[in-house]
Design goal:
17 strands; Dihydrodipicolinate Reductase, domain 2; 508 residues; globular; nine-stranded mixed β-sheet; alpha/beta; Rossmann fold
């Protein structure tokens, strides 16, 4: 493994939920796995008044997100980890001179030997990205005469193409593009990364990964909960912005992209950008009406428990038309994927929590067993991203007995079978990559903008009053007419909790 240089991680918004829930546990796992450099410091910075010790208590000793892990370790081990964590109070406003912060960083750098290598992690609203970058620059903390400087920003990266461009331009005033790491935790998942390996390292799939052999591709991202306490945020965002534009289009780019020259970060990201630019942008109302669908969950009863409809959730406008279900059919305008439809959906309150990619292969050119129903059961390659991570191949086999009765069989692989493998959490992997300067799994500026160029016309069309928002009972697989988007006899695969399961339309 690549050697990780001595460095300091400065987290803005450190008093927030993300730091305690995701970042510090990820850093702890890296520490326990001996992936951190010898000289490593975490400096939390936010507007809350805390001492170093109080911050350590909050995110380590008394953290509900670490209690199970640290309970298994000795006190000295935990104390050594906590001693790497510090805190700086920024006062009432992020838009202030970072004189005190700069002095604290310099002090810790000299005491702990961080070699002036700094990562600035912005766990803050996007409206503060440029503000923080500007103040870091004015404090002399972005200069790379000695050591490197990197900045990590969280999603949402923009609300539209225009706002994404504004964010990029704002960051580029103070940081060069190679210094900017736009984090998408979905790309940190092993099964997402395995899309590249499945495609490009297996001669079983690589020759068939094109329009000659693939009939269509579908991607499902489903959650079994509603908006919970995020109603205020979600009502201004919706499923298309929240999941499709970022996470799911990243997955699409890995499916669509051409083989990179090599496995370097820039070569892979170059091909991802080309893939996103090749998505056919829908412009006509007719096309958008036929190829997109929005829905919203309504009140229902799940396992005997009554659940609220979306418009009844806290923070949601009672007349809201914000989608909790979004489905899009689109095409890719390049040689490999001409006329192959892609179907992508994401939704709240569905029967199964799942994210998976389904590659549907075409039927053989000559149907020898035409009298059998087998040709309505196409061969499938199913890549389960979460949970029950694994890969499933569905193919035809002869049923024992007289005649040539054909049935589908499963051939499956599960990551859980790799007992000896060290599977990192998404944030662990992404943080370590940033520490090592590997931007492969981070989105580039042109990548983000290409995704927004595709999504913007859909969002604009959905603003029209006459665009229907279909209701679906919470706990079902979305609007009943969502299968109408498909060509022929096909419809959505409704996966069960296990990789090999397929459910009916409705589970209540």
């Amino acid at each position: 493994m690549k050697k990780t240089q001595n460095q300091m991680l400065i987290i803005f918004g450190a008093s927030g939920d993300l730091t305690a829930r995701k970042l510090v546990p990820a850093i702890y796992n890296l520490y326990k796995g001996k992936h951190l450099p010898e000289n490593f410091v975490v400096l939390g910075a936010s507007r809350s008044a805390m001492t170093d010790e109080e911050f350590r208590q909050k995110v380590v000793q008394e953290s509900e997100f670490l209690k199970d892990k640290i309970s298994k370790e000795g006190k000295d081990f935990i104390a050594d980890f906590a001693d790497k964590i510090f805190y700086e109070d920024l006062g009432d406003n992020y838009d202030t001179k970072y004189t005190g912060l700069s002095k604290r960083i310099q002090q810790l750098n000299e005491e702990k030997g961080c070699e002036e290598n700094y990562i600035f992690y912005l766990s803050t609203p996007p409206s503060l990205y440029e503000v923080i970058a500007k103040n870091l620059c004015e404090a002399g903390l972005t200069q790379e005469e000695k050591g490197w400087k990197r900045i990590i920003v969280e999603k949402p990266f923009g609300y539209s193409l225009a706002t994404a461009k504004e964010l990029n331009e704002g960051l580029h005033k103070y940081f060069k593009e190679p210094q900017v790491y736009r984090i998408d935790h979905y790309l940190g998942k092993e099964t997402v990364q395995n899309l590249l390996v499945t495609r490009f390292s297996n001669s079983i799939f690589e020759p068939t990964w094109n329009r000659r052999y693939i009939h269509h591709v579908e991607i499902t991202n489903a959650e079994t909960v509603g908006v919970e306490k995020r109603g205020g945020y979600y009502d201004k965002s919706g499923a298309l912005r929240d999941m499709f534009q970022s996470h799911l289009l990243q997955v699409v780019s890995l499916i669509v992209m051409e083989p990179p020259i090599n496995s370097s970060a820039e070569e892979i990201r170059d091909e991802k950008v080309k893939a996103l630019k090749s998505l056919r942008i829908m412009t006509s109302d007719e096309e958008l009406a036929n190829h997109t669908m929005k829905g919203q969950y309504v009140a229902s009863t799940i396992n005997g428990k009554k659940v609220k409809g979306y418009r009844e959730e806290e923070g949601v406008n009672p007349d809201s038309k914000t989608e909790t279900f979004a489905a899009v059919k689109f095409f890719v305008d390049n040689w490999r994927w001409k006329d192959v439809p892609f179907y992508v959906r994401t939704a709240k309150y569905m029967p199964t929590k799942v994210t998976e990619v389904v590659i549907h292969f075409k039927s053989p050119a000559h149907e020898v067993f035409k009298s059998q129903d087998v040709y309505k059961k196409d061969n499938k390659l199913i890549i389960r991203i979460q949970p029950d991570e694994g890969i499933l191949i569905k193919f035809g086999v002869k049923v024992p007995g007289l005649g040539f009765n054909v049935e589908q069989a499963n051939m499956d692989f599960y990551y859980s079978d790799l007992d000896s493998a060290e599977i990192m959490d998404a944030y662990e992997r992404l943080l370590l990559d940033a520490m090592q300067g590997d931007a492969t799994l981070y989105a580039r500026a042109d990548e983000v903008e290409a995704a927004w160029k595709f999504v913007d016309p859909i969002l604009k069309y959905w603003e029209n009053e006459d665009v229907p928002t279909y209701g679906y009972a919470a706990g079902t697989w979305g609007p009943r007419n969502s299968d109408d988007m498909f060509e022929g006899h096909f419809g959505w695969r409704n996966p069960g909790n296990r990789l090999t399961d397929e459910t009916g339309f409705c589970i209540l």
